[in-house]
Design a protein that fits this description.
This protein is mainly β. The protein has a domain at 215-377: Methylamine Dehydrogenase, Chain H. The protein has 2 helices and 34 strands. It has helices at 7-13, 141-145; strands at residues 24-34, 39-44, 50-55, 61-64, 70-75, 80-85, 88-92, 97-101, 105-112, 116-122, 125-130, 135-140, 152-155, 164-167, 170-175, 187-191, 197-203, 210-213, 216-221, 224-231, 234-241, 254-256, 263-266, 271-275, 283-287, 292-297, 304-309, 313-318, 323-329, 347-350, 353-358, 363-368, 373-379, 384-395. It is globular, with a radius of gyration of 23 Å. The model is unreliable at 1-21 and 398-402 (pLDDT under 50). InterPro entries: Host-pathogen_enzymatic-act, Quino_amine_DH_bsu, WD40/YVTN_repeat-like_dom_sf.
Length: 402
């Protein structure tokens, strides 16, 4: 008597078994630029081990995009932007994400132009503004990672310290100060894909600083913020003035909240501003015990942001209450006196941990975000300075590696 073979047994016999059970994994990598040497080091956060070191032409400011696939090393004094593939890929499958880890590597595409400074990404495209030329070049991140540095160029009347912001099918770009192009820009124009101007000029004297939060874009001006949102015919831009009862000051650096919509900006040397454009009291100031060195928002715990101050403390800032709710001593004091470009700590949030560079000690301090307590240090030769964190969680389908 013949025995029936079950469909499952048949699949197993044919080597067509169901896929390996997926394994949930969390992986974060730190990319750290040295202050003096033209190098960027990739570090596995869990082990603290270096995954690779990449030689550049000069010291770099680092940017990571939401896609997590690349870190961009902007070398303003050496007229180029290097592309470092992070080796981290998180593919969204709706009910879960797939995490793939490979070795980080220096990409073949090098973006060139005279004095690149501001780097801004939106929806898979990013713009680099080249101060020495007064032009912005917009690139596709997918193309650049494949080695294709093709760009669309948007010109301004003169070289200046400007910024360009990809915004859907349009670009928002600065207008230089006509009397003195070395001064800060005076406002922005909107250009379409063909480079034609759309709508009126939007005044923004002393323009410096921009950020996105949700579907809003904020641009910092001397007297308030320009707020842009997508409209039917392109960006709709309005002006949010500083309240008349605020003390003298302005924001010149902005970060965008993740998880809920707000902006965090500096406001003078020893204050920060929590900005909610939809609130009647849009600007809430937080006094700091000493001058601010650097700050970062927390994308995992949206109610928190972190401010490093010159006394060596990392402050936990509650965005909802606009109050400092934690203070943690991490380093020796780093005075804000002297040149702005001196080596001073920088902050990055990596999942459930916060990383703070300590350039003069050759260390990266690691803080547990839940307990707000320091847990360990990672030693790194040289003067670890600019830092970005890239990573996430996902299913690895049996391919477990760091």
């Amino acid at each position: 008597m013949k025995r029936a073979i079950s469909p499952l047994a048949l699949l197993l016999a044919l080597g067509l078994a169901t896929p390996a059970i997926a394994e949930e994994e969390v992986a974060w990598r730190l990319f750290v630029a040295d202050h003096a040497e033209p190098t960027v080091t990739a570090i596995d956060l869990e082990s603290g081990d270096a995954l690779g070191s990449f030689a550049l032409s000069g010291p770099a400011t680092l940017y990571a995009t939401p896609a997590k696939r690349a870190v961009y090393a902007v070398q303003g004094n050496d007229n180029q932007v290097a592309v470092i593939a992070t080796g981290v890929s998180v593919d969204d499958h709706g009910d879960h994400g797939d995490l793939t880890l490979t070795d980080p590597s220096l990409g073949s595409a090098v973006l060139t132009g005279e004095r690149p400074v501001h780097f801004v990404e939106h929806d898979g495209n990013f713009a680099v503004f080249y101060d020495g030329e007064g032009v912005a070049r917009t690139y596709s991140e997918t193309a650049v990672l494949a080695g294709d540095a093709t760009f669309a160029e948007t010109a301004t009347p003169a070289p200046h310290h400007g910024v360009a912001i990809p915004f859907g099918a349009h670009t928002i770009i600065t207008e230089p100060n006509a009397e003195d192009p070395k001064a800060l820009p005076t406002g922005v124009w909107v250009r379409d894909g063909a480079g034609a101007t759309v709508g009126d000029f939007h005044a923004c004297p002393d323009l410096h600083g921009e950020a996105s939060s949700g579907n809003l874009l904020a641009i910092a001006c001397g007297s308030g913020l320009l707020i842009a949102r997508e409209g039917g015919e392109g960006p709709e831009i309005s002006f949010l003035p500083y309240a008349p009862d605020l003390p003298e000051g302005k924001a010149t650096a902005l970060l965008g909240g993740v998880g809920f919509q707000y902006f965090l900006g500096n406001y003078g040397a020893s204050r920060v501003a929590v900005i909610d454009p939809s609130a009647q009291d849009a600007f809430r100031l937080v006094d700091l015990p000493t001058r601010r060195v650097h700050f970062a928002v927390d994308p995992v715990r949206p109610k928190f942001a972190y401010v490093f101050t010159e006394d060596g403390n990392l402050l936990q800032l509650d965005i909802l209450s606009a109050a400092v709710t934690g203070t943690l001593r991490l380093t020796e004091p780093y005075s804000m006196d002297g040149e702005w470009s001196l080596p001073r700590p920088r902050v990055a949030v990596a999942g459930d941990e916060i990383a703070v560079t300590d350039p003069l000690k050759g260390l990266i301090h690691i803080v547990d975000a839940h307990s707000f307590a320091k847990t360990r240090e990672i030693a790194l030769a040289g003067k670890p300075f600019n830092i970005v964190a890239v990573g996430g969680a996902g299913e690895t389908h049996g391919h477990h590696h760091h």
